[in-house]
Specification:
Blueprint (H helix, E strand, L loop, with lengths): L8 H5 L3 E5 L12 H13 L4 E4 L11 H15 L5 E5 L4 H13 L4 E4 L7 H14 L4 E5 L1 H4 L5 H10 L4 E4 L4 H12 L4 E4 L6 H7 L3 E4 L4 H12 L3 H18 L5 H11 L17 H13 L12
Parallel strand pairs: 1-2, 1-8, 2-3, 3-4, 4-5, 5-6, 6-7, 7-8
Helix pairs in contact: 2-3, 4-5, 5-7, 7-8, 10-11
Length: 312
């Protein structure tokens, strides 16, 4: 049963700004924390995000049962109440599983899905997979391009072809060096492929300068990324750069491989967005020294770790 109307393809075509990749909240004993999903959604909307993205790597989707996955999608869509779109991550071993996940997300009210590529297939097979996925649902499909985690590279040429011929109009692009690939995609596809950055916001300024329309990433001070994007969109490139430079130490520190999720959940807990920073196994946790170090970085850029959104 659809919980809320999905945004139209036309509204998706205008999507831009900061889409926060949300963590999945758990209680201390590892159960889903549905109350924290509601508070996290309100927190993100108060921070000014353009949308929410769930069940990506930060959402620990690979640690959820199918029933839990359904509960999480329904809870986020229900908590959003149409105020912002909710985009849902899709990853499966084959096309049938990906289509099943995408159709369920659509039925539950998702505005789009962002789909991981198939593993170890040819460009022709990859194109067929994404094109079939796009045909299987009425909501848009976003390419999730993250070779460091998926182990699969998607060439700029294939991305552009999917935009021109495959019915796939957007990419969450996380393959460094990001600048060159963004420019190449835009050269080949123009406006037929809209580009969101990612990678923790580490390259947000360069992504925007190259033609990205926003970012889809996790960062526990989302109002910072929102502020950078808004300044850039208003033509205040100097102001956007100054804001990026001010907060870059925190963006860099929070995006550490393997422990980034733990750092983000800790900040979200301290800011009152979620009740607990629990992570399901396997997953690296932070110790007292790391927590102290993180708090020092937050303070060094002029923020308070216990301040609710918006902190600016």
């Amino acid at each position: 049963m659809t919980l809320s109307a999905s945004p139209s393809t036309d509204s998706f075509a205008q999507a831009r700004g900061v889409f926060t990749i949300c963590p999945t909240p758990f209680t201390q004993d590892g159960a889903l924390d549905m109350d924290s999903i509601a508070t996290l959604v309100d927190f993100q909307i108060a921070a000014g995000v353009a949308g929410l993205a769930i069940l990506g790597f930060l959402g620990e989707a690979h640690k959820l049962s199918q029933a839990e996955r359904t509960q999480v999608v329904a809870a986020f869509v229900g908590a959003a109440r149409g105020r912002v779109p909710v985009w849902v991550g899709v990853r499966a071993l084959g096309g049938a599983g990906a289509i099943e996940q995408a159709r369920e997300a659509e039925a539950l009210g998702a505005g789009a899905v962002f789909a991981a590529p198939m593993d170890k297939v040819s460009d022709a097979q990859q194109f067929a997979y994404y094109a079939e996925l796009a045909r299987s649902v009425r909501i848009p499909v976003v390419i999730h391009d993250f070779p460091d985690s998926f182990g699969t590279e998607i060439s700029a040429e294939l991305v552009a072809r999917l935009g021109r011929e495959g019915g796939v109009p957007m990419i969450k692009m996380e393959e460094p060096p990001v600048g060159q690939k963004i420019s190449r995609i835009r050269e080949l596809a123009g406006e037929r492929m809209r580009i969101f950055g990612g990678l923790g916001g580490v390259y947000l300024l360069e992504e925007l300068q190259r033609g990205a329309v926003g970012t889809m990433t996790g960062f526990a001070f989302p109002e910072v990324l929102v502020g950078i994007h808004r300044r850039f969109e208003a033509g205040d490139v100097e102001g956007a750069a100054a804001m990026f430079d001010r907060f870059c130490p925190l963006i860099r520190y929070e995006f550490q491989p393997r422990i980034g999720l733990a750092l983000r959940k800790y900040i979200y807990m301290r800011r009152g967005a979620i009740a607990c920073d629990a992570i399901r196994a396997p997953g690296m946790r932070i110790d007292a020294l790391t927590a102290h170090e993180l708090e020092a970085v937050v303070a060094s850029v002029g923020l308070r770790i216990d301040a609710p959104a918006p902190a600016l």
